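Late entry, written up from scratch paper. The run itself happened at the end of the previous shift, but nothing got recorded in the book at the time, so transcribing now.
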Amino acid sequence: MRRTLVALMTGGALLAAPALAATPALAATAKPTTLGPHGYGSVRLGMSAAKAKATGKIVLKQGGTGACSGWNLKAHPAGKGAVGLYISRKVGVAVIFAQKGMKTPQGIGLGSSAQRVKKAYPKLKESPSGILHVAVPGNSKAYYAFILDKGKVSELAFGLDTQDCVN
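Output as recorded:
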């Protein structure tokens, strides 16, 4: 097992100590979180708004008087005029949008090349409007949708097939 050192600042002195990340629970939080196949970290597709809010990982950005409300992941807030995820009154967490630094288990994220997306997802299909989409490997109830700009992923959505928040 690989050992890691953690530097601690105590009373002005820098100390090095073995990292606690060797324990399974802490190691899981130290690794980068992936977008899929069932969620993003503890925020899972299909989770109710109450359960998603209880994770402490999201914050309301846009209240919903209709079918859906817009939220942000605290660790990856969406920019102005955008939301990071939608929660449906009917299906729960419906769609999560990739933000900078987020990647699928296959390593695809914003800025990935079209060639890389096609290699990672050989069953990729294109809609009449030009959006690339594929069933999520390991989750038959979800999809990835990719919008390309100049041959690179500019938007990536991860959602439930039954979501009722976005077109």
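The mean pLDDT is 84.
(Scratch paper discarded after transcription.)
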